[in-house]
């Protein structure tokens, strides 16, 4: 019987279609050129043989594509093994069912057998799905750098897929930067670990720029929406880079001498950093609006307080060094609030493929 399994595998590889191979087997069974057991063994081999096509298609593909192909191969091999070992029992079950429905059509018998192979396979695999997933992850490991795991060169020529890969990567980078920002605003000091996170984010941004440049060189925007998404994503990269640089300059900032009104804005900006994980939820729209409100209020606060602080210094009510330090800190917080808002705004637009009216005008 193993010979027929092997023949079934070869048939599918040559014909590049398990369906066509099964049709031939059905015809041979109906013509009584094959016994049921021989035809069943051929079908098992044909189902296993179809995995060769999946394997070939996954060569050079992304990790998800390779894992999908591996899952297909393992599942079909598993189903084939169960079907081969349980062939006598499955034969009895099928003929019992057909007798129950008063049918003896051999074509139906083989069709039911082919269906039963996958039904049994699914029933066995479902309870073991977590372990099966872990096995796939071990057999096909992902990229070591989780921030840039979506940037697979094989998708760079497919514009829509490439843009989505860039968008997802930028979301992950923003989450890292937002986590650092939230911790910085809470602790009021930059730790070595936080600097390491910012360095990782900086390297990831560099990879995103390289990947997006390759995409731009290999393909043109097919639609206006693709064009607008590209523009928004480049805006995100720019604002993230500026936000990252601002956070790295935290050592020159001083929170202790800020007034209550500014500290309230600092607390609200910290909250936006903390809430960034809501990106995929409906609440993200409200979060973007909150970030925008904070940025506008912080900009107004910067303009108003700068003048007041300098005038107070002239009246000798404030030390000059302290005054300059406070002004610098307010400017620093203003930069962070602004770039955080613009990053979130453009991330939202990159998902929707919509630019703001003033941005479209500036491009034109």
From TrEMBL:
User: Topologically, how does it sit relative to the membrane?
Assistant: Multi-pass membrane protein
Listed under GO biological process in this entry are: sodium-dependent phosphate transport
Pfam families for the chain: Na_Pi_cotrans
Q: What is its main location?
A: membrane
What Gene Ontology cellular component terms go with this record?
Answer: plasma membrane
Alphabetized InterPro entries for the sequence = Na/Pi_transpt (IPR003841)
Q: Where in the cell is it found?
A: Cell membrane
The domain of life for this entry's organism is Bacteria
- The transmembrane residues are 39-61, 73-94, 106-129
Which GO MF terms does the UniProt record name? sodium:phosphate symporter activity
What does the UniProt keyword field contain? Cell membrane, Membrane, Transmembrane, Transmembrane helix
Q: What is this protein's name?
A: PhoU domain-containing protein
Organism encoding this protein: Ammoniphilus oxalaticus
